[in-house]
Amino acid sequence: MQKEVGMKKIRIAQIGLNQYSHSGEIFETLVKFPDIFEIVGYALVEDERETCANKIKHFDGYPELTLEQILNDPTIEAVTVETDEIHLTKYVQMAAEHGKHIHMEKPGGADLAAFERLIETVKAQGTVFHIGYMYRYNPFIREAIESVKRGELGEIFSVEAHMSRYDPPAVREWFNTLPGGMMFYLGCHLIDLVLQIQGAPKRVIPMTFSSGKDGIISPDYGLAMLEYDNGLSFVRMSGVEIGGGSRRQLVLVGDKKTLEIKPLERGLTEEEKQAYGPAKYAMTTERVERTLNEQGRSVKKQEKSEIFCRYDDMMQAFAAMVRGEKENPYTLEYELLLYRTLLQCCGI
Predict the structure, then answer these.
(1) What is the CATH number of the domain that holds 225?
(2) Which is the most buried residue in 48, 128, 168, 319, by most CB within 10 A?
C-alpha cells in the first residue's frame, strides 16, 4: 500500500508490551511506514518495565508517555494495545471509551463479560476494532478461504489445523496465567481459521492437558474437536514439540478437493533473502491441492507462495480501515463468536 500524496498520517501510540508475543514487531512495523503512521509515543502499564525489560529497546527514539496522556489526547486517533494477553480487554476498554481506533494483540483477556462489554462499547463508538490474528493476512490462507466461499472445494467435511513449537520452561510456566494455556495462547489462531471456513460449531469438545515435562504442570498441550452437521474439525497445539513450527498446517477436506497448506509460514532461504532484501518476518508458504481425475485417481498440484511480510499487510490494512478506505471483514459479531468459541475450546 503506497501512501497517496497529501494523505494525512495516522497519529498513533502503543499501549504496553507483552512477554511472549510480538509487541515489539508491531511497533517496528509502525516505524517501517513513516508515510502512513505518525508515532506519538508509547506507554508501559502493569509491571512491564520489569517483565518486558528486554523489549523496551523497540521504543528507542520515541517518547514515553503516561497512559492518561495517550487516552486524553484527542489528536491521537489510534492505538496499538500490546499488553500480555490477560490484561488486553482492560486496556482496550479504556481506549474504546476514549474513542480510539484499536489494533489489539490477540485474543483478549479471560473474562467473557468484560469482552462482551468491550464489543458493545466499540459498537457504540463506531471505531475500528482490529485484532492481530497472525494468519488473517497469509496469502494462501486467504485464497483458501475465498475458494471455500466460491464452492471450489465443494462441501467441507473437515478442517484440521496444527500449530506447535518447543517452548522453554519459563514459557510453559507462564501458560498457567492463561485459561487453557496453550489453547488460549496459540489455539486462538487456529479456531479463527475453522470459524471463517465453517462458522459456529454445534458442539465443542475441549481437551487440554499437561505434558509434565521438566516437572512443570501447565496446560502446554491442547486439542479441541468442533462438531458440525457433516463432520468433525479439530485444532491441535503443543508447547513441547521439537520441530513443531515446520509441522504447522491447515488441511481442508471437501468433496471436490483436499487442500493442504504446510508449513503455514516458512522463513526465507539464504537465496531468497538475497533476492528479496532485508525484511523482518518475511516468509513464504506452500500448498498442495489434490483432486480426482476422470479415472478416479488423485492428482496433485503443488505451489509456493510469493514472499510476504506477516505484519506489513496487517498494519497497512488497519491503516486503511482507520482512513475509511477499507471495511473490516471481521465484524464485531464474528469477533465475539470467535472469543466465545475459544473459551469453550479452553474448557470454560
Answers:
(1) 3.30.360.10
(2) 319
CATH number at residue 37: 3.40.50.720
Nearest to 189 by CA among 81, 345, 24, 25: 345
**C-beta separation of 40 from 73 below 8 A:** yes
pLDDT, one tens digit per residue, over 251-301 is 999 999 999 999 999 999 999 998 888 777 899 999 999 999 999 999 999
Q: What torsion do the CA atoms of 320, 322, 325, 328 make, to the nearest 10 degrees?
A: 80
CA 79-82-88 angle, 5° bins: 95
Residue 334 lies in a domain: no
Residue linked to cell 474504546: 96
Which grid coordinates are listed for 62? 520515541
Q: How far is CA 70 from CA 36, 80, 244, 247, in A?
A: 19, 11, 39, 41
304 forms beta bridges with: 286
> Which residue segment(s) compose the domain that 122 sits in?
10-133+313-329
Residue 5 lies in a domain: no
From residue 83, alpha-carbon distances to 23, 48, 88 in Å are 8, 8, 6
Total domain count for the chain? 2
Q: Do 22 and 166 fall into the same domain?
A: no
In the three-class reduction of DSSP (H, G, I as helix; E, B as strand; rest coil), residue 214 is classed as helix
